[in-house]
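Q:
Just now I want nothing more than another pair of eyes on a protein record. Here is the record:
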Amino acid sequence: MSIMDSFPYQVREIENVFIPMRDGAQLAARIWLPEGAEGTPMPAILEYIPYRKRDITRARDNANHAYMAGHGYVCVRVDMRGSGDSDGVVTDEYTQQEQEDAVDAIAWLAEQSWCDGNVGMMGISWGGFNSLQVAARRPPELKAIISICSSDDLYADNMHYMGGCLLGDNLSEATVMFAFNSLPPDPQIVGNRWRDMWFDRMENSGLWLEPWLEHQRRSSYWTTSSVNEDYAAIQCPVYAIGGWADGFTNTVLRLMQHLEVPRKGLIGPWGHKYPHQGLPGPAIGFLQEALRWWDHWLKGRDTGIMDEPMLRAWQQDSVPPDTSYEERPGRWIGESAWPSANVSERRYGLGPYTILMGEGYGGPHQRNGQESALALQSPLSVGLAAGKWCSYAATPDLPGDQREEDGGSLIFSSRELAEPVDIFGMPEIELEISSHKPQAMLAVRLSDVAPDGKSTRVTYGLLNLSHRNSDADPEPLVPHRRYRVRIPMNGIAQRFPAGHQLRLSISTSYWPLAWLPPEPAQVDIYPEGSSLILPERTPGEEDRRLPAFEEPEEAPPLRVHTYAASQHNWLLHRDLATKESTLEVINDQGHFRIEDIGTEVRRSTREWYSTFNDDFTSARGETYTERAFKRDDWNVEVYTRTVLSCDDSNFYIHAQLDGYEDDYRVFSKNWEKVIPRDHM
């Protein structure tokens, strides 16, 4: 990473400005103003998220927004209503109120003396989501967006559900927001009303895990803010970006296929990170790439960015399995359109424990009249090496060697490849199955097996079998009746080298990445009625004319004093005496002081996911967070604890929140909720 301390424009930072909303509320904004903008107005770029501009995202904001402001853009980082130093209480994600506020903020920006009337919007994760959602509202001042690590489908491709299965990240993300939503504004920004605002948030923000768990089907709760319901609503240019280790990559492919506006897609090897900080690497000069985009769409300059292929992706080479990587070897590939003429679906049949990739095979496997089922009922240990649904690349949260996972799975392996096989897109599997119980799930994984036997997961998919036909109207299975199901796997660009094998692994559990069914179920798989479908790719002309990305750059870092360094780890505890297995996740952001505002910050989160023996109803997730802010004039701490457990009919939530001021507990609240399982 190159640190840049010289820019075309000098930049003045405005620590806080309040932006008025239509209902009288005010949103807090931090602004980076290029010198001369008040006399010669410039375009504005908005980032709009609930993660506290004053302290928590201050370092990232400094690195990103000061850089772009130094190149002639007014950069504005806004705390959403109910977060940071803004008025109000936030009660859920991606609400209509949130989007209306963004429309008001964009209109306000365009009216300022330093703005030329052109506004862009960008963000990662939540900021990527609402960039798409606000674009669909078509505010006339919004001329283009950059959406990073986001989703167009809040039900089927988000942190809550996947293939109709409840994700462990549902609890994890609810925990993140439980902590954030309970934090106070800064008294130096909002004045003496800070304490009343804090108590209002702790009392009224709510436990978001509850509504997320109550809506186990696809419904208007999820679709109202899902832009895939009407892609045509987006009328401004879109740059969609993701990473193969992230959870939201499929969105980039769908947006390239369905949007009708000028658009670009970029997928690197990264986890949930901005690409100039991307891990696994290689990181790229993302801020320079963003400037090329903004210069084209907000300043009308010919940067050449729209002359390049629509979609660019990092095709990964084979690597040994590991739970973290500094770099993923590979190469950039390009596509002028998506779907691509360079990609064709190849269908391979399954035989007993075999992927039939023999010469001349090109269609569904021919039945010989003597087919037999392969029985599958996985132990609860399958999934403990699955990694996280959405990798943050700060912990060892990627999938490890799949051989242990495969020991509790049904596996189908190809012969050794005579030639490399390149894929780009979303592999799928079609299975003919029957189940001994009305409720069951399948987890499918595609892996790269090296000659030494090590197995690296390439991609995976999940299916709650009661959701086989519909996420909106699930239906239980009729025991022992045969069904055909189709399970898409996450998109990927991957090269399988000659001499390696492809392996398809199938299990009936994948804990704790996905919550367990209510009881163990044997699923019978009929290989002669089943197929693996690969999006095989041949190199295209676009690959040869891709310009190189520049090296990563950013503005000078935030000055901090560190009292305790961050710690990240995943620990697996197996008690052979009690037969309890627990996965412990440590995400300790450490203890530091932000020098320019004098605030000490302490942040820590721990998660535990446990099961007992082979008892599916013993599944339990527990999370605990600590957050603290301290200055001479301010000393507050917030602690949360959430427990999610179940039996065969219900989910059970217990949560508690405690707020402290000057070491005295000033607020405490408990929640106890029972939520019926709905085909889940």
Summary: The mean pLDDT is 96. The longest helix spans residues 96-111. The CA atoms of residues 184 and 452 lie 54 Å apart.
